[in-house]
Amino acid sequence: MDINSYHQVLLDQQKEKDEILPENLTARREEVYFDLDSLLAQIVIGVRRSGKSTICHKILKQNDIDYAYINFDDERLYDLKTEDLNSVLEALYMVYGDFKYLFCDEIQNIPSWFLFVNRLLRQKIHLIITGSNAKLLSSELSTHLTGRYNQIELFPFSFSEILEHKNISGDDDSTLGVARRKSAFEEYMSQGGFPELLEVKNKKAYIRNLFNAIITRDIKQRFSVRYPESLRKMADYLTDTLCAEINYKSLAKQFSFGSAHTAENYVGYLRQAYLLIGLQKFSFKSRKRIRNEKNYVIDTAFISTVKEGFSEQNFGWRLENIVCIELFRRRNQTLNDVYYYKNGYEIDFVLCNDNAVVELIQVSADISAQKTFNRETNALFCAATALRCNNLTLITLNENRTYTVDNQTINIVSILKWL
Question: Of 122, 154, 186, which residue constitutes the final position of a domain?
Answer without folding.
Answer: 154
